[in-house]
Each structure stands twice: as structure tokens, then as C-alpha cells.
TrEMBL record:
This is IS630 family transposase. Residues 185-319 form the Tc1-like transposase DDE domain. It comes from Natronomonas aquatica. Pfam families: DDE_3, HTH_33. Residues 111-166 form the Winged helix-turn helix domain. One of its GO terms (molecular function) is nucleic acid binding. It comes from the Archaea. The lineage of its organism: Archaea, Methanobacteriati, Methanobacteriota, Stenosarchaea group, Halobacteria. InterPro entries: Homeodomain-like_sf (IPR009057), RNaseH-like_sf (IPR012337), RNaseH_sf (IPR036397), Tc1-like_DDE_dom (IPR038717), Transpos_IS630-like (IPR047655), Winged_HTH_dom (IPR025959).
Amino acid sequence: MANLENVSADDLRETLSKVDDGDAVKRLMAAITFKEIDELSQKGAAELYGFSSSWASKWFQRLERLDEEPFEEVVYGEPRDGKSPELTEQEHEQFIEALHNPPEESGIDAPAWSVPLARYYLREEFNVEYCERHVRRLMSEAGLSWKTARPEYYKSDERAQEAWQEGFKKKRNNLDDEYTVLTIDQTRQVLSTLIYAWFPEGERPSLSVTGKWDSIKLLGAVSDAGETFFLPCEENFNSDTTIRLLDALQTEFGEKICVVLDNASYFTANAVQEFVEDTPIELCYLPRGSPELNPTEECWRKLNQALGNRLFENLDKLQDAALSALDNLEPPQLSAYLCP
């Protein structure tokens, strides 16, 4: 009866990380248990996972070959579902080349590679089925790493922004003097956010943070008279919250308001359009990709500076600190953004 002398528990664990078949997992776990518990017999290890002593004699012998043969042939015994057990050298090179190009070039409708997409490519292109862990390792060995792409925001060109500003000037001039011009925007704040600050050279600073992503949500407005209005929002932003904000702004600034806002779906929703139809509210949507035209964005920048590098115990304390900071900030001038 084989004693698995040619294979270590670490070898077995590494193989375990590559398999995705329930029976194969149990076979390997039985072998690992046998290797790690000195007083346990092969029969005892086999019985722990529902196998017989004759099974142990057969499969432990097979596992001795892990250092000589592809693990799929050892662990699975036969190729599953008619699939080839592993990539050939040429197929492996083709796989690496595919990973270094956008998935679209391999006929996959996606902007970037993921483990499931790579598994799909291997299955469709080479009829090879690997578990996700093994595919992840192949992708790492191919020189890929898990990271976030740099954001490349849609940005309006200067001509579009200038045209919008000229159009807004004309619209503003056609409104009567009772109208208040407002810009609105939204933000989320989490319990801790690290921002750039000054620290002594040669030191590696550390600050307390939390891994929680609990957040407060705020809607804000800045008026052409230099006033501000901020409203905490319990639920996620949607058309209902937009309507409640517009209603609150009318209560605060009067029925006649001209609101400048971006193209977020909860601002452009049909329900919002229907709400303003029978009101004197005027909505002016900024060109897409033009956050620099919205002065309320400057309020959020100042808020981030006030709350950054601080850890708040709970959302109530975060909200109190946020509203206090917003009450004390110097509002930006709308004319500098909308009508320069």
C-alpha cells in the first residue's frame, strides 16, 4: 500500500487549489489528512471522507505520480466530458498572447479580461476546462495582475461648454427677476477617507481607517446669491429623492427656481420631468462630462478636505461633522462657473 512518500502535504494542497470537482477535492483532502495525522491509517483517512480501504490503496498510489504527470490526469483519472486535460505548449502561448490584447480581438464582447472570461476562452478555443484558481495563476504567470484601470471620463470639448454657457446666459436673461438660480449635485461620504497631507520626510505615516463602506448621502445646492442648502438622504439617489429636493428648494428659495444639474439618471428621469411640467421650475442640464462647470462640486471638494484623514465612529457622527463643515464653508460664486 502506497504511503505517499513522494508527495508532500504542501504538494497536495497546491493541487487542491487547482481542482473544481467535488470527488477530486475529497480524494485530495483524504490524502492531506493522512499525511498530516501521524497516527491515522490510510483506511481511517479514507473512511473520514466516505471511501473504502481498497479505494485508498488505489488512489494513494495514483497520487504518488503528481510529481511526474499533469495533475488532471492523476486527480481526475480520465479527461472529463471529452475535454483535453491541459493546454499544449502552443496553445499556452496563444492563450498568453490573447491575454495581452483586448478581449474583443478574441471575439469576446468585453473591455477587459476577468477570470471567468479567461475560463470561457480556454473552454471555447481549446476545449480545456480549468478551475478558477488555476486560471488565475495562469493569468498571473502570463504577466497580468489584478488592478483597477485609470478612469477616463467622458469630457465635453471646450466648444460644447462655451456653447452651453452662451445658451444659459440667454436663458437667464429671459427669466424674470423673481427667479433664483441654483446648481445642485450629490455626494457620498464614508466613515474614513485618506487624502494627501504633509508628513515629515523619511517617515511612513499611518492613520486609522475602517474597512466598512457604510456611507451618508448628501444632496446640495448653491444659489446665485451665495446661499447653500444641503439635504441628508437616507436611501440611494433616485427620481423620488430628486423630486423631494426640488420641492425642498422651492420651500427654501421660492416657487421660481432655475436649477442647473448634471445628467445623472435620477436627475433626467421621466418622473422628474413630469413633476416640473406644471411648475415654474426651469431645469438646465450641463453638457455631459462637465463637472468643472458645476460650483456645487467645489463644496464637495472642500468637504473632502475637512473630513479626510479622520475616522468617525458611526454614521451619525460623520453626518454631524459633514453638515457642520458645509455650514461653515465659503460658497463658490455661480457666475464664475456658469457665466465667466
